[in-house]
From TrEMBL, chains A, B:
It comes from Asanoa ishikariensis. Pfam families: LacI, Peripla_BP_3. This is Transcriptional regulator, LacI family. Gene3D superfamilies: 3.40.50.2300, lambda repressor-like DNA-binding domains (1.10.260.40). Residues 31-85 form the HTH lacI-type domain. InterPro entries: HTH_LacI, LacI/GalR-like_sensor, Lambda_DNA-bd_dom_sf, Peripla_BP_I. Keywords: DNA-binding, Transcription, Transcription regulation. One of its GO terms (molecular function) is transcription cis-regulatory region binding. CDD domains: HTH_LacI, PBP1_LacI_sugar_binding-like. It comes from the Bacteria.
Amino acid sequence: MSIVIDIVFETPPTLPAAASIIIGVAFPQRVKMSDVARTAGVSVATVSKVVNGRYGVAAATVERVQQVISQLGYEASLGAQSLRSHRTNVLGILVAEFEPFSTELLKGASKEVAGTGYQLLAYSSGDGGGTSIGWERRSLARLSGTLIDGAVIVTPTVVETKQDFHVVAVDPHTGPSGLPTIDSDNFAGAVLATNYLLSLGHRRIGHLSGRPDLESARLREAGFRKAMADAGVAVDERLVRVGGFRVESAEAPAFELLSLPDRPTAVFAGNDLSAISTMDVARGMGLSVPDDLSVIGFDNVPESALVNPPLTTITQPLQRMGAEALRLLVDLIAGVERSTHIRLPTELVVRSSCRPFPPPPRASLPLTVRPT
Amino acid sequence: MSIVIDIVFETPPTLPAAASIIIGVAFPQRVKMSDVARTAGVSVATVSKVVNGRYGVAAATVERVQQVISQLGYEASLGAQSLRSHRTNVLGILVAEFEPFSTELLKGASKEVAGTGYQLLAYSSGDGGGTSIGWERRSLARLSGTLIDGAVIVTPTVVETKQDFHVVAVDPHTGPSGLPTIDSDNFAGAVLATNYLLSLGHRRIGHLSGRPDLESARLREAGFRKAMADAGVAVDERLVRVGGFRVESAEAPAFELLSLPDRPTAVFAGNDLSAISTMDVARGMGLSVPDDLSVIGFDNVPESALVNPPLTTITQPLQRMGAEALRLLVDLIAGVERSTHIRLPTELVVRSSCRPFPPPPRASLPLTVRPT
DNA sequence: ATGAAAGCGCTAACAA
DNA sequence: TTGTTAGCGCTTTCAT
């Protein structure tokens, strides 16, 4: 008896009942493949075949299903799709945080991805302060295998390479591991920066380095020391401090540097953010940049041009680095044979935060016209 | 008989066989929950409970499972997790493309998300040229319901609001629908820009508008006309052209504008990118900005300060808009009662692309010092 | 040419 | 306290 009742309640799968059609019509919810199937009067398997362009579906059926798809506005769920197929045509860019550096890379990658058939998914672990190390590993574990077909990781500390999953690192914290890598010539850039300050006549030059565990930071400091040595200028170790690469972390060491009785006449900051921080600190101490202190940065993030005075800095081709990273990733996935280490050049960008030392005699320019 | 054979081949679920342990040890692949379960000698259900902090697991078990998790470096798959639980603690930001405008919003959102417990996932449809309309609908359909708990959509044309899924629009193309919205005071900003040009003495002022189907473009043009009318200056309709909001789309109309026999002495471009485009076109025609032509933009993307001459523009607090959008979304999800329409103020940023008209007599400043 | 059924990695009833 | 079971929405054999 009870068996009979059960059968009455269950809709036999062979009968796409009238009730289904009613449901299919009024559907304010997310429309899923089963909705398409029901409305088109076919199975989900058939819809899947149509969606993925598989063979073995009658032309008429394809037609009808596609009709329903566009009518219902169906779009496959990325989550479900990837869980099953392990192929999504989505590439990931994993960052700790969306700040000037990573967003410039993003712009470059975004341009490059056009026409490749991939879409871009940028994922921020939300770990701005670098408090929890291993964000790159966690983000990767969370997204790889499902969701994305490959990843660009920005300034990772460590990345164990999973098999069957392609990863390229941009500006990794440790030196070239086996990982495909894009970076810029940090060493040469640092030499460039230091030589510029030297050429302006500075001799007491300070350096605000990044954390010593970062490869780029190490290289920039090494470049600084090399240029100083080549110029025969001794480095005063009290003028070399760890500034980290963030605005907040640079404040204290910058203050210490500028509080020294014989403070430096110029500072080479490890990156633009710490340079900007240094300028802020200087201003707070009543020092004028560049009159009392020359400051040079590194990176050339857009923000460096927006501060007052505009920051003289070393430019890395950030957008191009993002583009190259994306291209490398695409090639890797496609199995293209190519070199997997790309180093891009750096260049000096002179703006207004540096001045010769000692300062030239200040001429008072007679102002003949004062615009309203 | 055959039944007996079947039973022999199937591993009884009550016996986590020795074979499993071997597999569990050497595992270079992505580690999944079942691996953790096997290694810890519990069921996946128990692991799930531990991962999600559910009650009803012995302290000792929790301990052991957590041990294994960190030892194996297990991280839940976003795809699988969201497919099942419909709750991911990930918020999406949907953009057509990662360009200066959207990346500024991203920076603001990224700062705001810290401490909310959410992570950020920015998704680019890859539709830069605006070729395929409806990218926002497609991206949303692809990610909502799974993967993300809510979304911020940047400059959407249309968005049908799904039930049970929160969406906030930033600078939507159409006027305020029912959708929660963040935008800036486009009208007031346009008045500001126009008044500035008028105050410099300009009367023949051109306007390069956005596409008329965009609300922000309409408002900016309306503000322009209002300011002109209030100043009693007639708008020459030949000086008003559709520039679109992109560098490429602005080139032709800018050229037309500047080729006019009585070309404008100043141009108010609908946004920074078209202003930059206008400056390029002017340069190509041998016109000097600001000497022969004043140009003012709108948005204040970082790039506007990087061009030569630096662009005078109207600033929208882009990062703050991103932050407000994110906060609104979080509140919406949390069910907080609050206003769902936020309009932020615009401001004039004077840089170097505008000059009084007619130009003041050019005084030749005697250069007494020329720095090397 | 089409559909039934299994299963991707996970969560949530419910049983034990 | 723990495990069994049934799916989430999709793809993919394998029958039919």
